[in-house]
Write a structure and sequence with these properties.
Pfam families: Dala_Dala_lig_C (PF07478), Dala_Dala_lig_N (PF01820). There is one protein chain. About 30% of the residues lie in helices and about 25% in strands. The chain is α+β, with helices and mostly antiparallel strands.
């Protein structure tokens, strides 16, 4: 019997392109090739889709060569991709999405794949879009009783309600990941500069009250109606913000596999994480991050619907400590779609 054709989709046109390639390289390295055929599908920075005989070394060095360009086929009876050079079909049974940032986590690719009748890992179109847009995350989660930082959403620099801004505060694009465009702000002049900087990434910008607390997080894996919730980890950062540098250069930060907060606090974080996952209608897997203050108040920070999968990323480590190895994690996610 032929093995299932699994398209490992990675890359994309947004700011997290290189992170996506790094995550995909780790997935490719641990992929259960004895069970499934892995077909790497690369989206370059211009938005073109390719496949090729990519090696692990190519992916790890982000130097992909030997491309054949592809087009997505919108044929419900013959799901797959069409080679641009000879119009032949590359059949695909399942798409394993390793796309980070707005294009990959915001619902666009998910919508395309649904139209093409290709099942995909992770959240559906709507939940992807809601979790990517932190403004909508605020609205839905706060309505469910989950605390988040006080905020205002602006679409123009003149929209700022200065009377509602307290310092320090955090300015961030509403629809970005990996802390791109995020600034810690101490005064009015910095606020204006930070907003203009955030507008370089998005047309919607959040100004959030700064939560003086410790960042903690948990991983969720939900397959076959069974939900695994990891232990709560803890991130000790050297600066005010857990930014891109600290997320992807492990020497700049310390991650504790189990938070030092009391068990009662960790259990409440797990409860709120599960609640956020459910009210946002997430599917399969996510990493959910919170802040916990000294007096143990808990604030949701964000939901990552396709969290980093690199060797230093938190999510695979969370699940490994919960008893699910990297290859098992990949297998469970694929088999859940069958």
């Amino acid at each position: 019997m032929d093995k299932l054709q699994v398209a490992l989709v990675f890359g994309s046109i947004n700011s997290e392109h290189d992170i996506s390639v790094a995550s995909a390289a780790s997935v490719f390295e641990h992929f259960p090739k004895d069970k499934f055929d892995c077909v790497p599908l690369y989206i370059d920075k211009d938005g073109k889709w390719y496949t090729g005989d990519y090696t692990l070394a190519m992916m790890q060095s982000n130097k992909l060569e030997g491309h054949r360009e592809l087009y997505l086929q919108f044929n419900y009876d013959r799901p797959g991709f069409i080679y641009a050079d000879d119009q032949s079909l590359l059949p695909v049974d399942v798409a394993f999405l390793m796309l980070h940032g707005r294009m990959g986590e915001g619902g666009q690719v998910q919508g395309l794949l649904k139209c093409a009748n290709i099942p995909f890992t992770g959240c559906d179109v709507l939940s992807s879009a809601l979790c990517m847009d932190k403004g909508f995350t605020h609205i839905i989660c706060e309505a469910a009783g989950i605390n988040m930082a006080d905020y205002q959403l602006i679409t123009h620099i003149n929209d700022i309600d200065i009377e509602k801004v307290t310092y320090p505060c955090i300015v961030k694009p509403s629809r970005e990941g990996s802390s791109f465009g995020v600034t810690y702000v101490r005064n009015y002049d910095e606020l204006l500069k930070a907003c203009l900087f955030a507008f370089e990434f998005d047309t919607r910008v959040l100004i959030e009250a700064y939560i003086k607390g410790t960042e903690v997080g948990l991983g969720i894996l939900k397959t076959d109606q069974k939900m695994i919730i990891s232990e709560v980890d803890q991130v000790n950062v050297s600066g005010e913000v857990f930014d891109f540098q600290e997320k992807y250069h492990p020497h700049a930060t310390e991650t504790l596999p189990i938070s030092t907060f009391p068990e009662s606090v960790r259990k409440e974080v797990q409860r709120l994480g599960e609640l956020a996952f459910n009210v946002l209608d997430c599917a399969q897997f996510s990493r959910i991050d919170f802040f916990v203050t000294e007096d143990h108040r808990i604030f949701l920070n964000e939901i990552n619907t396709i969290p980093g999968f690199t060797s230093s990323s938190r999510y695979p480590g969370m699940l490994d400590r919960a008893g699910v190895s990297y290859p098992e994690l990949i297998t469970k996610m694929i088999e859940d779609l069958l």
